[in-house]
């Protein structure tokens, strides 16, 4: 594997029960949903586009993109059987007629045509040979097409959460830019989740424990209101640090 940063890639294996518990929380997680809204705001309103959700997980982004523009044809892929089942269930519950869900990795997926937009949320950190995966995304994207990516940020936050989810690395703006720049013109590049930096450092890095998700399950609690208020600010304002890096880039013609 080509060196990507001064930090060596971690060699980990996913803990599937932990990953699937993460699916459960993500469906109503204000952090994830606000992050998705930031990405959705970067999308065009053009009708009839071909879209790939590369690493769809439990399918929330499929639903949000279908709501954003019902005329889009959305292909969604993932390697996890549980994720595929959940994404299919959500598709059926919401009657998403424009979404097709398939089990495949990025590297092994061969669509019938090229895409106008590819979205890949929290996927690249799971891939050892990330350069090969990015090249494959480039090959599946039309010239002038859009790539939208989110990845976990700040290698010094690497801890329990990353180990159990099988992350090889965390990112910063410079590393993500370096990986995308040979193929793309980067239009947006920002951190998101400044609020969670001390939480991630304390629980995942220092204490080697899961995040305290129970504090966010009660949507009427004071803690939930504070979190939602700060996330609403971060949706509009990019801070110089965060637990995720988000990018939107245009494939060079």
Descriptive notes:
The protein is an alpha/beta fold and 253 residues long. The chain has a single domain (16-251), classed as Vaccinia Virus protein VP39 (Rossmann fold), CATH 3.40.50. 39% of the residues lie in helices and 21% in strands. It contains ten helices and seven strands. The chain has helices spanning 16-26, 30-41, 60-68, 81-94, 130-139, 160-165, 173-180, 197-206, 214-217, 222-236, and strands spanning 50-54, 73-78, 99-103, 115-121, 141-152, 184-192, 244-251. A seven-stranded mixed sheet has the order 3-2-1-4-5-7-6, with helices on both faces. Helix 5 links the parallel strand 4 and strand 5. Helix 2 (30-41) runs parallel beside helix 10 (222-236).
Architecture blueprint of SSEs:
Elements lengths: L15 H11 L3 H12 L8 E5 L5 H9 L4 E6 L2 H14 L4 E5 L11 E7 L8 H10 L1 E12 L7 H6 L7 H8 L3 E9 L4 H10 L7 H4 L4 H15 L7 E8 L2
Parallel strand pairs: 1-2, 1-4, 2-3, 4-5
Antiparallel strand pairs: 5-7, 6-7
Helix pairs in contact: 2-10
* Tally of helical runs: 10
Uncertain residue ranges: 1-8
In terms of DSSP E residues, the strand content is 15-25%
CATH topology: Rossmann fold
Largest sheet, spatial ordering of strands: 3-2-1-4-5-7-6
What is the domain tally?
Answer: 1
This entry's quaternary arrangement is: single chain
Name the helix and strand elements from N-terminus to C-terminus, one letter apiece: HHEHEHEEHEHHEHHHE
Quote the average pLDDT.
92
Largest sheet entry: 7 strands, mixed
Query: What percent of the residues sit in helical stretches (DSSP H or I)?
Result: 25-40%
Structural class: alpha/beta
Count the E strands: 7
Anisotropy-based shape: globular
Intertermini distance:
28 Å
CATH architecture: 3-Layer(aba) Sandwich
Radius of gyration: 17 Å
CATH superfamily: Vaccinia Virus protein VP39
- Per CATH, the class reads Alpha Beta
């Amino acid at each position: 594997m080509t060196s990507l940063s001064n930090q060596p890639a971690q060699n980990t294996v996913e803990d599937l029960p932990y990953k699937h518990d993460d699916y459960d929380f993500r469906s109503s997680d204000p952090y994830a949903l606000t992050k998705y809204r930031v990405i959705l705001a970067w999308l065009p309103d053009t009708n009839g586009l071909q879209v790939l959700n590369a690493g769809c997980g439990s399918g929330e982004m499929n639903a949000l993109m279908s709501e954003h523009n019902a005329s889009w044809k959305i292909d969604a892929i993932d390697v996890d059987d549980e994720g595929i089942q959940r994404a299919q269930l959500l598709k059926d519950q919401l009657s998403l007629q424009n979404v097709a869900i398939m089990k495949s990795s990025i590297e092994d997926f061969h669509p019938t045509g090229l895409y106008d937009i590819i979205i890949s949320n929290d996927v690249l950190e799971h891939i050892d040979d990330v350069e090969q995966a990015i090249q494959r995304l480039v090959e599946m994207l039309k010239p002038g097409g859009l790539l939208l990516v989110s990845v976990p940020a700040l290698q010094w936050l690497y801890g329990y959460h990353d180990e159990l989810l099988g992350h090889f690395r965390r990112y910063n703006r410079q590393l993500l830019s370096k990986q995308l720049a040979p193929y793309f013109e980067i239009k947006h590049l920002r951190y998101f989740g400044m609020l969670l930096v001390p939480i991630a450092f304390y629980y995942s890095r220092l204490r080697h424990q899961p995040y305290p998700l129970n504090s966010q399950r009660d949507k009427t609690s004071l803690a939930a209101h504070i979190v939602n208020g700060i996330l609403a600010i971060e949706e509009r304002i990019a801070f110089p640090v965060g637990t995720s890096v988000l990018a939107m880039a245009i494939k060079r013609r």
